[in-house]
Specification:
- This protein has 600 residues and is of the alpha+beta class.
- Helix content is 37%, strand content 18%.
- The chain contains 20 helices and 19 strands.
- The strands form 3 sheets. The chain has a 9-stranded antiparallel sheet with strand order 3-2-1-11-10-9-8-7-6, sandwiched between helices.
- Helix 10 crosses helix 11 and helix 16 packs antiparallel against helix 17.
- The radius of gyration is 27 Å and the shape is globular.
- The N and C termini lie far apart (87 Å).
- This is Serine hydrolase.
- Keywords: Hydrolase, Repeat, Signal, TPR repeat.
């Protein structure tokens, strides 16, 4: 008997080791198969750590779903670079708009329990605030179904959060547009149930309805309906985040000029207030998948199927995107397999990005959370594509490109600078046996030859064609959406911004002056330069000189001059510039605040 037990234990250990090795093999494959939007035959995938460095992402965390279970979870990089705190599976990130999906699941659970109806006017449930009546609402009252499918015609697309020191508004102040909310009131300003129109404001209306019905705070309600039932121990809607989670929360990072260098607070809970981990969110996504099969914990099969039924079209193209009652639904336009339909939500908050995607059928999915708020089409989507490739998701990736190998002499002819507009240049350089596109020093886009004179841009699967003259010289490049080719620039031909980067300021000034930009365009350019590192003061002054010459009576121009003088520590000139700007626009509150601060 003892021998039989020992043999049985050895068998279990052996199976566990084999399973563990299989999982580790899948992790390694995912980490080394990050790919562009369009898969390319023979193209070696990028390494995850290398791409984190490329995109300047300090830290991220991944949870992969396979066969309705979490297959693996892993953290990469740093949650806090100053504290030298690594990302772990327990690291919590700001989930941004994924909050809306959890609010929708909470609402649908209350529909299941007959506390609220999807199709009755939402104003009948609201007691502490009401949607203002107007011509739109009188013809078609707003319902919960409309709010959850972003078809209610409500205002306020997104919310931008608060720094920790700022006072926080209540939900009714947010909806009413009180001064403390720093946003306008949420109203219905287009025809309801007519089209998709993304609205964080609509999500806040739904949140308040759930609170008014339950007589509970939103954080307590979601704790009871979602987090406790699904074992989501590292998730909260409380804002600010409770102290008990403070050691688990990642810091926030972004290169955006407006970013204050710290995690923001989002009192707009249903729209953007969730903090969570990929593990916890994977539990939710799995439960939605299981509910669709009638085996879920939170939702009934009937309501889960309704949740994942398209309500309104969002966009068409290579992929068909629709809105369910809560999640986005996406599939390749040519897909005919039920396992090729996916539900998803993406979250973007100050210094954070998050992606959640799972198949409606088949039990696949991935959650990715980053502590970088830059480049929504970057590493997160590359990881998602890698998971889809390694786990063989049904009809998710576009059809693979079959590139051709051109001789170096032919590739060299295609290399160069192509003028897209007066100050927009497309650069093509050669790398290995393909080309890399870069527009005005943005992120690289990989391009693969499919014939002597045509390439595929792998970011959106767009074909480009090269134009040659009678001497067989390449003189232009045109993609299928352009009416005319982009001319190839000569070696002594430069754009205004190129002159600026070359520190040829006189030439840059003439070139920018010839563009005749309006006051908004040119002051934005100056603002952008003032918030870039390293700081090039002569470049900023060059732009502002042009702005002042062409728009001498612009409040925006004088305001930017004030900002410039502060950069060079010339307080007296800054005050004069702000005063002149205020004379031209007496209602500018920011100018008044600037002058008050400088007067101290």
């Amino acid at each position: 008997m003892a021998k039989i037990i020992l043999l049985f234990l050895m068998l279990i250990v052996g199976q566990s080791f084999a399973q563990s090795k299989q999982v580790q093999d899948r992790i390694t494959q995912v980490e080394n198969n990050l790919i562009p939007y369009v898969p390319v035959k023979g193209f070696k995938g990028w390494n995850l750590i290398d791409r984190m460095k490329y995109y300047k992402v300090p830290g991220l965390s991944i949870a992969v779903i396979k066969d309705y279970k979490i297959d693996w979870v892993k953290g990469y990089g740093m949650a806090d670079t100053l504290k030298n705190m690594p990302v772990t599976p327990e690291t919590m990130f700001s989930a941004g708009s994924i909050s809306k999906l959890l609010m929708a699941v909470t609402a649908l659970k209350m529909v299941d329990s007959q506390q609220i109806d999807l199709d009755k006017p939402i104003n009948t449930y609201l007691t502490s605030w009401k949607i203002a009546d107007n011509d739109f609402t009188q013809k078609k009252p707003i319902t919960l179904r409309m709010l959850l499918s972003h078809s209610a015609g409500t205002s306020q697309t997104s919310y931008f959060g608060f720094t920790p020191a700022e006072p926080l508004p209540s939900i009714t102040q947010i909806l009413s547009g009180a001064k403390i909310s720093q946003t306008r009131a949420v109203v219905v300003n287009s025809e309801p149930a007519n089209e998709f129109r993304y609205s964080g404001g609509g999500s806040m209306i739904a949140q308040l309805a759930l609170m008014d019905i339950s007589k509970k705070s939103f954080s307590d309600l979601t704790q009871e309906i979602l987090f406790d039932k699904l074992g989501m121990k590292n998730s909260t809607f409380e804002q600010p985040v409770p102290k008990k989670f403070s050691n688990q929360c990642s810091w926030a990072y972004s290169s955006a000029s407006w970013f204050k260098g710290m995690p923001y607070v989002y009192p707009q809970q249903a729209a953007a207030g969730l903090y969570s981990t990929p593990t916890d969110l994977a539990k939710l996504f799995i439960d939605i998948q299981k509910s669709y099969l009638g085996k879920g914990t939170v939702l009934s099969q009937a309501i889960a199927k309704e949740m994942l039924t398209p309500q309104v079209n969002v966009s068409d193209g290579g992929y068909k995107e629709q809105m369910g009652i809560g999640p986005f639904l996406i599939q390749r336009t040519d897909n005919n397999d039920p396992k090729g339909v996916f539900f998803e939500f993406t979250g973007v908050n100050a210094g954070f990005l998050a992606y959640g995607m799972a198949s409606v059928e088949g039990g696949n999915g991935v959650i990715i959370m980053l502590n970088s708020g830059d480049n929504q089409n970057g590493i997160g989507k590359e990881i998602r594509r890698s998971v889809a490739k390694v786990y063989n998701w049904t009809n998710f990736l576009p059809t693979e490109i079959q590139p051709v190998n051109l001789p170096d002499i032919e590739l060299d002819k295609l290399v160069g600078r192509y003028r897209m507009s007066t100050d927009e240049v497309l650069y093509l350089r050669k790398e290995k046996n393909y080309l890399v596109e870069n527009i005005n020093n943005s992120f690289d886009i990989y391009c693969f030859p499919v014939s002597k004179d045509s390439i595929i841009f792998s970011d959106f699967n767009i074909k480009g064609f090269f134009v040659r003259n009678e001497k067989d010289e390449v003189i232009g490049l045109q993609n299928i959406y352009q009416k005319k080719p982009m001319p190839k620039m000569k070696d002594d031909e430069f754009s205004p911004s190129e002159y600026l980067s070359m520190q040829k300021y006189d030439e840059a000034k003439k070139a920018f002056a010839a563009m005749n930009m309006n006051e908004g365009q040119i002051t934005y350019l100056a603002y952008d330069l003032m918030n870039k590192k390293p700081l090039h003061l002569k470049a900023i002054k060059t732009i502002l000189d042009v702005a002042l010459e062409q728009h001498p009576n612009s409040s925006m121009v004088h305001s930017r001059w004030g900002d410039y003088y502060l950069k060079i520590n010339n307080k007296a000139s800054a005050i004069k510039s702000y005063q002149r700007a205020l004379e031209l626009d007496p209602n500018d509150q920011q100018l008044k605040e600037n002058l008050t601060t400088l007067a101290k």
